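ARCHIVE CARD
CATEGORY: sequence design from structure
SOURCE FIELD: tokenized fold
FIELD CONTENT:
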């Protein structure tokens, strides 16, 4: 790669960041507006049921993740038609298998969580996994080359269609089925637009042995990593679903929805921008490019940290202003969730550097460590001090994992000690300050579960 590569990459990163961040903000605004409407048309139990459905579907997705997206974005053959067709075949077969597994899990899940409605809604909602598996591989090649504008437009159009259907059905029926059918409609519209609105060759069932070996070799570690990724992303609801009522879980999900906006925003940028950026940075071996990526990372972390601290400070007032009295407990939950999220934010991009360099085994090791610590500390915390203890455990787990993440970052030549020290200090001060400010509202939640 030429020495002019930084000048080519950075504008593409900035354009990609603009499309991703702009699209994400619009998408979250749509979700927020629809959430306010749906909270008045439905009941907290509906959001609890949907949280369980989402948790199960995400669990199936992550526990079977073969790393196709990451492979296409980072592999030298990421533009090869045979490689792409093999990847698409793998995804399509996986989607169908996951739907069958979800159908088989409907009755056991309903019994485990004492939610008989899951017996009906899980097989229907899980059909979205089939639709997701049929997405054309050119979606991932577009992400590989940071061509994100049309992808974001497709996601927004699909989301609008799903929201309109959800609101209409919620108004007509007042049932959780409004959320289920709306989510399924979103997946169907998204798939149709991906096949018709993004240029490029189609896909067909193909199995090229060399491509298959490359995908499964890389994806084997991704599969194991994603199993622990499920604990990171959905472990709280999997555990709380066993201890809280469906109504309590629904209220928690409202709090999580609002408090998680900054972290979801950061994940959207990191997932779509950092793997290509770190890949091209490694190929260029150019210190100037590395420095510019570090500056972009510093700005990204600062913006997300500011959003989390703001939410932690105003959480209870925000809920009181926007929602009715049924959801007031979501206020202190926002304080706790946003404060706990400040610690893992510090190392958010380090594991992506390992993926970009093809180190899926190191990525797995770090994911396993972080997920094991987070789950153990969460369970201990919830037993000792209820929900506040559980979320404090999440923050403590991130601090314990930090030295191991820093070592990974040093090995990948992306460690930034100044960045980490600054935002660890800011996270501790901001998080503890917000908890102290709202301590009176938080204390009633400290009953051990």
């Amino acid at each position: 790669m030429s020495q002019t590569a930084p000048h080519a990459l950075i504008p593409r990163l900035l354009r990609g960041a603009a499309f991703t961040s702009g699209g994400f903000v619009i998408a979250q605004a749509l979700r927020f507006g629809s959430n306010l409407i749906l909270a008045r048309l439905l009941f907290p139990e509906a959001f609890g049921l949907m949280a369980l459905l989402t948790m199960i579907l995400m669990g199936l997705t992550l526990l079977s993740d073969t790393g196709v997206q990451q492979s296409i974005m980072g592999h030298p053959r990421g533009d090869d038609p045979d490689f792409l067709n093999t990847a698409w075949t793998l995804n399509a077969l996986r989607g169908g298998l996951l739907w069958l597994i979800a159908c088989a899990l409907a009755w056991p899940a309903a019994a485990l969580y004492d939610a008989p409605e899951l017996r009906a809604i899980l097989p229907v909602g899980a059909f979205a996994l089939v639709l997701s598996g049929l997405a054309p591989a050119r979606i991932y090649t577009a992400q590989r080359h940071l061509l994100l504008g049309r992808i974001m437009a497709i996601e927004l159009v699909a989301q609008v269609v799903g929201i309109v259907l959800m609101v209409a059905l919620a108004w007509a029926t007042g049932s959780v089925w409004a959320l289920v059918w709306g989510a399924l409609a979103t997946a169907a519209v998204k798939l149709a637009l991906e096949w018709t609105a993004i240029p490029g060759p189609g896909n067909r069932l193909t199995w090229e042995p060399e491509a298959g070996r490359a995908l499964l070799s890389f994806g084997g570690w991704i599969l194991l990593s994603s199993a622990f990724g499920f604990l990171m992303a959905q472990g709280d609801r999997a555990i709380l679903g066993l201890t809280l009522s469906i109504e309590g879980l629904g209220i928690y999900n409202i709090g999580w929805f609002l408090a998680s906006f900054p972290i979801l925003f950061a994940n959207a940028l990191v997932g779509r921008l950092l793997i290509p950026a770190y890949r091209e940075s490694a190929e260029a071996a150019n210190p100037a490019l590395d420095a510019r990526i570090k500056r972009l990372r510093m700005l990204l972390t600062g913006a997300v940290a500011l959003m989390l601290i703001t939410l932690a400070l105003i959480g209870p007032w925000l809920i009181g202003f926007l929602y009715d009295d049924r959801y007031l407990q979501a206020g202190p939950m926002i304080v706790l969730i946003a404060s706990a999220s400040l610690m893992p934010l510090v190392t958010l991009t380090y594991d992506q550097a390992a993926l970009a360099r093809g180190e899926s085994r190191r990525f797995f090791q770090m994911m396993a460590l972080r997920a094991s610590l987070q789950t153990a500390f969460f369970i201990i915390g919830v037993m000792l001090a209820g929900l506040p203890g559980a979320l404090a455990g999440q923050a403590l787990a991130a601090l314990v994992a930090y030295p191991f993440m820093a070592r990974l970052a040093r090995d990948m030549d992306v460690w930034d000690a100044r960045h980490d020290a600054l935002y660890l200090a800011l996270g501790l001060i901001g998080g503890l300050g917000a908890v102290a400010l709202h301590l009176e509202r938080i204390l009633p939640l400290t009953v051990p579960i």
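CARD ANNOTATION: The chain has a mean pLDDT of 84. The two ends are 57 Å apart (CA to CA).
SHELF: design records, drawer C
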